[in-house]
Amino acid sequence: MSGDAVREQATDEVVETVAAGPGRILRIAIPTLGVLVAEPIYLLFDMAVVGRLGALALAGLAVGGLILGLVSTQLTFLSYGTTARAARRHGAGDTAGAIGEGVQASWLAVGIGVAIIAVLQVLAGPITHAVAGRADIADEAVRWVRIACCGVPLILLANAGNGWMRGVQRIRRPLVYVIAGLVISAVLCPTLVHGLLGAPRLGLAGSATANLAGQLVSGGFFLSSLVRQRVPLAPQPEIMRDQLRLGRDLIMRSFAFQACFVSAGAVASRFGAASVAAHQLVLQLWNFLSLTLDSLAIAAQTLVGAALGAGQAAGAQRLARRITAWSTLFAIVLAVLFGAGSVLVPELFTGDAQVLDRVHVIWWFFVPLIPVAGVVFALDGVLLGAGDAAYLRNTTMLAGLLGFLPMIWLSLVFHWGIAGIWAGLSGFIVARLVAVGIRAVSGRWARVGAELPS
């Protein structure tokens, strides 16, 4: 393709991006939602398979999964940060540079992943004992962790692959790659755990081996797709340093979330089994809704980043308003459904009268927060697409440290119970709404150019 044809195609894509309507937004959001929910759905299947080994194996899986999940969660900058940087370059017509962001993110993924393997192989015992609190559970978990952690570089490669592909708006292929890996894991998991079809019965180690095999398939697909793009594959330390600088902000923001929600769980457990069970039940529903709304936030990130890369600040602001409106409307529909299902939905998960009583206390914090989250998550996506991660880091940490965490611990001191914890969560979300709302209205985030603002 000639240079003129490439520029003409880039111009056409900019026009389509800035004018993105519901169809274009959904073409990004729906496959993205598939990628986001595929892993949690598989983990439920994995738990069901391992659960037939008994409570000890299931507890070992829970501890091991928590450790590996924390590692993966803290490194999501390889997807979110890469999307922001690649979308900018793609919008500016530099698709090769956008894919090059994926190359450098993949080098980081391999380097960080290998370092994590080394650390966990040495410290898996002490870490699992510290988390589990019991030697028998820790002994189960440590075997799972030592096998499963070998897949960390592959998980991070998939994160980087999702990042650059979202940035250049190739959205369907990552879903295929992720599902292919999970299908392999889903076939191997019961086979290896229970020794079906003549396979060795590996027990809990079979679960970790199945996970590793699936990650090898997904990671291999992402790596192969990157190599086929015919872009330079050599490491470029300057680009990697810039990616790590953005990653630092996203990691600190993620730590703020983790501190708040771990504290909430710890305090809920001190109000009794019924309270912690109710808290966990509604929190899982909240997490599922968050993934659903995140799919629209990632669409905002992708499209806004491309518009700013193309020098279209006004177009990016129109996109921000449009996607936020759609996310809010969708969230209102979800809130109406969950409000109408206030009796039915909790009873799908438990029949315990005490747990249901606590759930109903939480429910009327949970439902009104859904539309608020629709606005917050969409604007989070807008600001991430604009590279405004430092602002998000600072405001999220302030909202957590000055609002959510004090309210959680005051609930324990003054015996406010589960209502106090969810009042704290409500304050946290509302504080974030105010922060991202002020930033969005100011327009200071809409800085154009192929490079993210420093």
Automatic annotation (TrEMBL):
Instruction: Tell me the keywords, alphabetical order.
Output: Membrane, Transmembrane, Transmembrane helix
In alphabetical order, the GO MF annotations are: antiporter activity; xenobiotic transmembrane transporter activity
Gene Ontology CC = plasma membrane
Q: Where are the transmembrane segments?
A: 25-45, 57-80, 105-124, 144-163, 175-197, 203-223, 250-268, 288-311, 323-341, 361-384, 396-414, 420-438
Q: Which InterPro entries match?
A: DinF-like, MATE_fam
Q: How does it sit in the membrane?
A: Multi-pass membrane protein
* Location of the protein in the cell: Membrane
Q: What is its main location?
A: membrane
Tree of life domain: Bacteria
Which PANTHER family does the UniProt entry name for this protein?
Answer: PROTEIN DETOXIFICATION 44, CHLOROPLASTIC (PTHR42893:SF46), PROTEIN DETOXIFICATION 44, CHLOROPLASTIC-RELATED (PTHR42893)
The family assignment reads: Belongs to the multi antimicrobial extrusion (MATE) (TC 2.A.66.1) family.
The protein's name in its UniProt record:
DNA damage-inducible protein F
Q: What is the lineage of its organism?
A: Bacteria, Bacillati, Actinomycetota, Actinomycetes, Mycobacteriales
